[in-house]
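User: My instructor asked us to take a sequence, write out its structure as tokens, and then describe one feature of it. I'm not sure where to start. Here is the sequence I was given:
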Amino acid sequence: MATSKSLTEQLNQHPAKVNAASLGVKALLETPTMKRKFETVLKDKANGFITSVLNLVSNDTYLAQSNGMSIVTSAMVAATLDLPIDKNLGYAWIVPFKDKNHNYQQYAQFQLGYKGYIQLALRTGQYKHINAVTVYQGEIKNWDRFTETYERGERTSDEVVGYLGYFEMVNGFKKTVYWTKEQIEAHRIKFNKGKDKKALTGVWRDNYDAMAIKTVIRNMLSKWGILSIEMQKATVADENTATDFDDEGNPVTDITEEATETIEQTESESNKPKTGTKKSTKKDVTPDSQKPDPETQDLLDGFNAK
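Assistant: Let's start with the prediction itself. The structure tokens for your sequence are:
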């Protein structure tokens, strides 16, 4: 299995004897080894995708300061799922963060948007309809969680009170879920990896409704939908840090709970010495280090229990 470590070794064996760790994103993507990896996954679309990665980095100051290999590896996850990484499209993002496991150095991680989940679901050919929307005050009355029914009402204000998800499969199975704004907040705080659990940072700060809708869809599909291999792979990779990828571009994650924090939450602590006695997962990679984060594990446990 070719990993980012082995890729680095391959790059360092180039006749020019260039240290891969010192290369920026552009230089990494221009190496023959990296080009072959993306061409293997994307075929004729590889050049266009690589250009989109370079454009993304050049237009994002924080991302441009992140570890180059982590950006490339996150991009490979998106490439494997055949999803665009343009922020404006909302299918997937490459997000910068400060990593506790690397003395608060800046890295990048892959995050799947709600449109990405919908796209992957539709590709299975099993879904006849699928949607998730924001719900404004007055639009839903008498929600019954037991029968999953409600009365339609008229919107009375611009205040968002919840989020509704729905899908119907080609075999006739239907599912409707409704999350109140309070439930979304409780979920966000519970799985916030930063020290200040209640702080709105990163994508949640910039795209709260989109992230809330994603939470509804991700939970709904993982618990009641049909998950293709591609969708299971996306669920595990979402919001985890892919440190390696194999010959087919499949991500190999290496993350533990509370391992990462957003830039805003750690900016004031970036100069503090690293404390604790945790062993580096870089040198001693155990099976536990490749487990998904608690939220993902909770969803997969629910799916596997069906």
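For the description part of your assignment, you could build on this observation: The chain is about 40% helix and 20% strand. Try explaining in your own words what that tells you about the chain.
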